[in-house]
């Protein structure tokens, strides 16, 4: 285990499975105490917390629907209260709604924007009251914000593309406070929502330069780097961890 994040406290939204779970575990492995939010799967969230505690780190689990701005703010406040500090915020929770343009409802639009755009903004807004110099805000986007090769992604891609502008603007605003803000865009990643052996996996893998899916740990490694001291001069950046999907 690394000690690059020793003494740090982190909040990871949507940390019960997939990329979020991998990020939570990796930050703990590098020394951080971690609070993770989840929407429904209590058992999975508790399992991630147990992995973190087994490393000798503190872990807190809280239920929060990222579509509810009050719940997002409460999660930030609780993380700072539980740990007595907050150094790292990872906006990972996301809504993945696909469909033909003419079939998408206004409710689906509002839900997607609420979770994928409003929640990271609200969490960042709440967190800056606690983040010290050297604080980190890292948001998980998507490769489809830069390259959309299948139909049905108009709503999801729109929401994820908004994060690049948010990241740049927050990076500029918070730079004088030595708080960095960065965006990580994963490519095809082996999760329950998009398994590496699913029915479309071969076609999706073929769109990458490397020819295969990422493991969630690959995304988590990049997040951990951006959260650490060696990334102190990186802000407002979009980092594609996509196996060459967007080249």
Q: What can you see in these coordinates?
A:
The chain starts with 8 loop residues before the first strand and ends in a 6-residue tail after the last strand. Helix 2 links the parallel strand 2 (33-38) and strand 3. The chain has a 7-stranded parallel sheet with strand order 3-2-1-4-5-6-7, with helices on both faces. 41% of the residues lie in helices and 14% in strands. Helix 3 runs parallel beside helix 4. The model has no long low-confidence stretch (mean pLDDT 97). With 247 residues, it is of the alpha/beta class. It has one domain (9-238): NAD(P)-binding Rossmann-like Domain (Rossmann fold, 3-Layer(aba) Sandwich).
Summarize the structure.
The chain is α/β, with parallel strands linked by helices.
Backbone shape: globular
Rg from Cα: 17 Å
Alpha-beta content class: alpha/beta
SSE arrangement, N to C? EHEHEHEHEHEHHE
User: Spatial order of the strands in the main sheet?
Assistant: 3-2-1-4-5-6-7
Q: How large a portion of the residues is in β-strands, by DSSP E?
A: 5-15%
> For the residues shown, what is the average pLDDT?
97
CATH topology: Rossmann fold
User: Fraction of residues in helices?
Assistant: 40-55%
Q: Quick one: CATH class?
A: Alpha Beta
Helix segment tally: 7
Domain tally? 1
Would you count the extended β strands for me? 7
Give the biggest beta sheet.
7 strands, parallel
Q: CA-to-CA gap between the ends?
A: 33 Å
| Model regions low in confidence, pLDDT < 50 over at least 5 residues | none
């Amino acid at each position: 285990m690394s000690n690059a994040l020793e003494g740090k406290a982190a909040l990871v939204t949507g940390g019960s499975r997939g990329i979020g779970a991998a990020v939570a575990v990796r930050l703990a492995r590098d020394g951080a105490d971690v609070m993770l939010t989840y929407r429904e799967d209590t058992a999975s969230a508790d399992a991630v917390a147990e992995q973190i505690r087994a490393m000798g780190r503190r872990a807190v689990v809280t239920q929060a629907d990222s579509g509810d701005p009050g719940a997002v703010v409460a999660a930030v406040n609780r993380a700072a209260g539980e740990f007595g500090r907050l150094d790292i915020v990872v906006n990972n929770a996301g809504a993945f709604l696909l469909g033909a343009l003419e079939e998408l409802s206004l409710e689906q639009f509002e839900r997607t924007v609420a979770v994928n755009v409003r929640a990271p903004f609200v969490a960042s807004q709440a967190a800056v009251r606690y983040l010290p110099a050297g604080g980190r805000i890292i948001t998980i986007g998507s490769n489809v914000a830069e390259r959309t090769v299948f139909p049905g992604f108009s709503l999801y891609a729109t929401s994820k593309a908004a994060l690049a502008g948010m990241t740049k603007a927050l990076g500029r605003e918070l730079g004088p406070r030595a708080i960095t803000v960065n965006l990580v865009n994963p490519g095809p990643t082996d999760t329950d929502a998009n398994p590496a052996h699913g029915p479309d996996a071969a076609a999706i893998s073929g769109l990458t330069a490397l020819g295969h899916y990422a493991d969630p740990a690959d995304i988590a490694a990049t997040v951990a780097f951006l959260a650490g001291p060696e990334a102190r001069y990186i802000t407002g950046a979009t980092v594609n961890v996509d196996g060459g999907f967007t080249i």
